[in-house]
Amino acid sequence: MDDPDIHSEQKSLPPLPVAPLPVLGAVAGAEEAPGGATFCQDTTSGHGDSSGSTTQHSTSPVNGRSILTGTQESGRSTLIHSRDEAMAAVSGLGVLDVGGTHATAAHIDSRTWRIEGTPQRADIDAHAAADAILDAIAAPARGTQEPMWAIAMPDPFDYDHGIGRFHDVGKFESLDGVDMRAGLAERLDADPRDLHFCNDADAFTVGEWVAGAGRGADRVMGLTLGTGVGSGWVDGGRVIDPGVPKGGRAHQLQVNGAPLEESMSRRAIRRAYAKATGDRVADVREIAEHARAAEPGAVEVLAHAVQSLGRALAGPIRDFGAEVIVVGGSMSASWGLFEPWFREGAGEVGVPPVRIATDPDAAPLIGAAYVAVTTTSR
Length: 378
Prior knowledge:
single chain, alpha+beta, 5-stranded mixed sheet, 9 helices, 18 strands, 28% helix
């Protein structure tokens, strides 16, 4: 995830129960098809889906693989591996977590969902040429042979096809329209079909559900607060499109007559603080310190931003039926200051308990691996 303000060391995850890998036969609506292929009903809609429709997918063995056939109406795909393929994948896989300033590579044991060894990291210049950025993303994984790769990427991105859509977003713009699946497969010496992309906030949320602060809950809403606002919506380990916000992307919500990130983002907070105090240097961390010291300008700016966040998210969180919210990103360090304002913004709608991410560095790596093994990219 793009989290430039926090640099924490890799932590040890708490002991995990070793559970059987979820395979196709365990998914609701799945049934075996002739020749080892599988048909699976897409059940990824959130609460309040009035369409009642499901989409049937089928897979057929081709060159020793299973491929997705048919169409999808929801914009997401469910598990497509045959049972044999899924069980063959449990030994482990490589993972890349791509942020705006760095990429991290690791190997995940998918029998225990633990990181094996020490993750490797490389800096990225998000304003460089496309080839230079692809080289930097692949750099921490160079020389590593993996049976498959899971790659967590920030929006905007075409996760099905592995194509960047970074138009006019201030980062990775040279990758707009670039086939990153082909480019990274070449650099990783991998088959493009073995690269699986997912959204970084989704990966974070799934990772915290698997091995972090979301363990023990069925429905978890993940909230990442850093440069902007990221969100993931997970039900039993499956990424859900709640409908509102569209695609599960909180930054698309409107509040105060404008997009959410015009009120709640690093850029918006710094801009508002500079207008209120004349200080154009302070970053969010310093502004939070000033608010703890009861500086009126800092309190006013942060209260407005975080109340706006609560007002925008309360309804979607209620409709989704989240049992817990897991918060990560650089601003999570100030959540003790933020939470009363967040709940005030939510008002009578209310929000469920909020937990700070157990390991925001490991979570997107573990989550991306889990999504890759058990589902296809959205």
